[in-house]
Amino acid sequence: MKLTLIVMFILISFGQSFAAPLTIQAGKSDLLGATINYKQEFDSFFDPGFDYSRFFGRVTDKDPTGQIYKIESETKNVRFFKVGDYISFHVEGSDDSDDPCRAYVRDVEKEFFVIYVEDIRTCWRRDAYFRRGSRLRMTSEKLAQRVRDASLFRVLLLRRRKDFFTQLNGINRFVWSFEQQKVQVAAEYDRRIAEMQSQKQKALDQLLSKKADQIRLQRELGQNLDEIDNDLEFYRIEREELALDRWEHDHDLGLPVGDRPQQAKAKP
After folding, report:
1. Closest by alpha carbon to 46, among 141, 151, 143?
2. Whole-prediction pTM value?
3. CATH number of the domain to which 71 belongs
């Protein structure tokens, strides 16, 4: 029951099923004991009106003790059996009102399963030999529950399959259009390269033009500096240092010298 509730809540969270599910109403009790209503969505292979708990089997082998039997069944749902599942059955030809035999699943194979029977005489005459090949009318509510759970889980698997197909379609579209995308990407990068080359050439031309302007400005600035240096030299104010003028200095000191410069003495 816990497994059914878990699967049910997972299915409700996924939304509508794409497998044309059949919807039935059911009631369950939550942990607080209150009754809640929910929808179970089964796949299209599940028939809510069919009793999956009843099926037929045929004895193919048995052990000497008469308690372990190997059963073959055309119902492929027997693959959902698990070890320890309870089964009740009647031998074909007996009345359903008779007490059924009680058995438990011991092993499960493809189209076969092995059961342990507590007492075969419960549903079989004590004076008759229970032979191989006997047909059994079997009932298992556990199997019916497993079939319902399998149908619910199959809806979930179908949704996952749909999601995987959606992802696969996207991948296939990418793989199939790879060459076209490759050409488009190459063309886009060629356009960018051409645009960058044009920008590069434009930047180089601007740099050369700026270089010519800078050289012309450099020459003009050099000429201007030379002119300023000449003007600075021309307009420099010079200070007269009278100490360098000997004659003016002698007059200032009051020394006995003539007003005019004397003749230079001849060398001996």
Report:
1. 151
2. 0.52
3. 2.40.30.230
